[in-house]
Amino acid sequence: MSKYMHTPPSAAAPGKAKSISPLKRGVRAGKNVIHGRMISLDFFSRHWIGVAIAVLLLVWYITNKYECRTSMERVQSLERRLEIVKGDYVNEHSTYMSRIREGAMEELARKNKLNLRVQDEPPYKLHYQSSPSR
Asked: How many domains in the chain?
């Protein structure tokens, strides 16, 4: 028998097995964990390599998860920025194409001596109001 385990005399008697409810076992195990009886200093001294590896793996997992989340946030912000830049590109491209067409039309009018030019002011509408009939 181990020096750490104390068996009460009633439990030591053969043939008289005492059944403990699962709830009491759970409470007893919880108390053992809280008071340091289940995982003791002796456990850590015997298994220090495994504990160190477990801690390192946990730290590595947390680091990778953080890096993944920050990378995903950066990708999302860059995708939003890309959409804005694409919209700006479409606007600039359409403005450029309209200027090229306008320049080509001016050149064609000049070659054919049509005496046409681009107006500086926009056209305005004239409204004719007829006099009332008598």
From this structure: 1
Look up the domain containing 46 and give its range: 22-111
List, as one string, the DSSP characters of the chain.
--SS----HHHHSTT-PPP--HHHHHHHHHHHHHTTSSS-HHHHHHSHHHHHHHHHHHHHHHHHHHHHHHHHHHHHHHHHHHHHHHHHHHHHHHHHHHHHHHHHHHHHHHHTT------SS--------PPPP-
Q: What tens digit of pLDDT does each residue of 20-31 get?
A: 787 787 788 777
Query: Is residue 51 domain-resident?
Result: yes
Q: Is the pTM of this model over 0.70?
A: no
